[in-house]
Amino acid sequence: MEIMSSSAVAPVATGDVMKAPDDQSAGQRPRLYREILLIALCYSAYSFVRNLVPTTHTEALHLGAQILRLEHTLHLDPEMSINRLFLHVHWLGVLANYYYSTLHFVVTPFVLGWLYLRHQDRYVFYRRLIFATTVLALIGFYLMPLAPPRMLPGFVDTVLAFHTQGLYASGASPVGSVSNQYAAMPSLHTGWALWCAIAVADVVRRRWLKILIFCYPAATVVVILGTANHYLLDAVGGAVTLGAGYLAARSVRFVIPRLGPVARVFSTD
């Protein structure tokens, strides 16, 4: 992969739609211990909020049925067809299960670490962006508990069908007993995958690499639908949440200087 030097990076992600502001001087890297502490605190908050149980199972199922009806009205309901395809093509369903349960937690920290080590002039902005996106998603999980398609009639949970590793399972399982099964809207798998693509596209030079990297969020959307973990509108919600996170991240650089020492963890020095 051919990469531009940090001092000559042009904000070219998706035609400057998500242009990273030059608010961090080249060569200036935040202290590692503080970044680790910040990430640990944010992940702890993420785990706590995401695993809060909604009021009723029935309410979450009812909302899921409403989402499907809305998609059907809009002629945007490919979930059932893709889920059946994954069930009929055994290797595709198995691969999707492992994709869903692993890449989300491998690619995202890899890209974040790569930015920290190689592109520190972009790192702080993209760290702010993914944190802001995640916080907004957590608010959505808490306010809108939504049962995934695999819990609704007609859909099949590919983890149970193929008896493979899975991030969640619809039936009684150790994972299912400790994880919030109703955190479907918005899709953080989609939001984080799109974040990875935009961050990488912002710093690579070759146009074909910029295009290729967006195959990752596209494949992620197909996987979350085929495994019956999300609705198409969840994926749309993930992209919208990333956009809202972008606006929040752009605002932070103006707000932090006025917040004092408590907020300096977000600064660049």
List the SSEs and their pairings.
Elements: H1 32-50, H2 57-73, H3 79-88, H4 90-118, H5 120-143, H6 158-162, H7 174-178, H8 188-201, H9 207-213, H10 215-226, H11 232-255
Helix pairs in contact: 1-5, 3-4, 4-5, 4-8, 4-10, 5-8, 5-11, 8-9, 8-10, 8-11
Concise summary:
The protein is mostly helical and 269 residues long. It has helices at residues 32-50, 57-73, 79-88, 90-118, 120-143, 158-162, 174-178, 188-201, 207-213, 215-226, 232-255.
Please tell me about this protein's structure:
- This protein has 269 residues and is mainly alpha-helical.
- Helices cover 62% and strands 0% of the residues.
- α5 (120-143) packs across α11 and α8 (188-201) runs antiparallel to α9.
- It has one domain (30-169, 182-266).
**What percent of the residues sit in helical stretches (DSSP H or I)?**
55-70%
State the separation between the terminal residues, measured CA to CA.
Answer: 29 Å
Mean pLDDT: 80
Q: SSE order in H/E notation?
A: HHHHHHHHHHH
Number of domains: 1
Please give the largest β-sheet.
Answer: none
Strand content: under 5%
* Strands, total number: 0
| Shape category | globular
Work out the radius of gyration: 19 Å
**Structural class given helices, strands, pairing?**
mainly alpha
Number of helices: 11
Low-confidence spans: 1-15, 171-178, 257-269
